[in-house]
Amino acid sequence: MWSYILKRILLMIPTLIGVLTLTFVVIQFVPGGPVEQAVHDLRRGQTEGGGGGFGLRTHTGVDAQQVEQLKKLYGFDKPPLERYVSMLGKFARFDLGDSYFRHQSVWSLIVSKLPVSISIGLWTFFITYLISVPLGIAKAVKNGSKFDVATSLIVLVGFAIPGFVLGVLLLVLFGGGTFWQLFPLRNLTSDNWATLSLGGKILDYLWHITLPVVASVVGSFAIVTMLTKNAFLDEIRKQYVLTARAKGLSERRVLWKHVFRNALLPLIVGFPAAFIGAFFTGSLLIETLFSLDGLGLLSYESVVRRDYPVVLGTLYLFTLIGLATKLVSDLCYVWVDPRIQFEQLER
């Protein structure tokens, strides 16, 4: 086992370097870099009320000395290879650097955005599994019935509706858009949250998070539900189930003692990836729609602003977490199903 884990960890290093190298090379050719963004901001700041107060531009450009100062500030006065090696050295020490425009370290930015992403992600994860797994089991047991057909139609319709469109509909219905003002439209808590009692804080938080979570979770039901149903159907049709029934075991005992354990293997193995992914897969559109400042919005704004330390830092961190999660998922195969050996995973 330990040799397999060591091999996988060693393989993570070239994968990380490859992802960072490709992104770094692409960045070198992307127009409108941080220096150009800063120059644009300086030029815009030089536009003042002049010529009778009609907002005419009094300065038409930024001199070469200022541009050189900006290049030095952002590190672009050094050759690309030197900047690349410096970046890898910092990332090896888990130093993600500082944002160009936010005047904060990348670590502090990520930590500050995590509450939103954790709130949406974890609620989506738990609600999805709490509803989809029992529903999938019920659909497998009643396969082909009216219940199975009706629930399949409902979950597939929910899957087909984009979360952003559903969010707009929820805002129109319950956010004061046209009908009822039942839920707030921004932030995770109210302005007076600190003054509320413990029970009041919990209710206030749930009040704010309801619409974003509903918009995020509806589209997630179909995949887990159908995966659970198909896994149970595959097990129910196997020979050992027929043998158990022939021995006179009750249907409940056959289902929960024999089928349940084997059918949930794919879901259990996928738990680590789904759980960790809940932190970092926040929807940009959902966050924008409900005015929630999370990791999705941070990543988008960083790309638009060409804030390369944030772009590369978050990419490095998310890639590392993704690789580690894949390793844990592979290990779960062996821990959950003793029939699988590490030698099989290495092939």
UniProtKB/TrEMBL annotation:
Its main location: membrane. Keywords: Cell membrane, Membrane, Transmembrane, Transmembrane helix, Transport. One of its GO terms (cellular component) is plasma membrane. It is found in: Cell membrane. It is a multi-pass membrane protein. The keyword Repeat does not apply. Residues 114-329 form the ABC transmembrane type-1 domain. GO terms for biological process: microcin transport; transmembrane transport. InterPro entries: MetI-like, MetI-like_sf. The chain crosses the membrane at residues 9-30, 120-141, 153-183, 205-228, 263-290, 310-336. PROSITE patterns: ABC_TM1. The keyword Nucleotidyltransferase does not apply. NCBIfam families: PRK15133.1 (NF011712). Belongs to the binding-protein-dependent transport system permease family. This is ABC transporter permease.
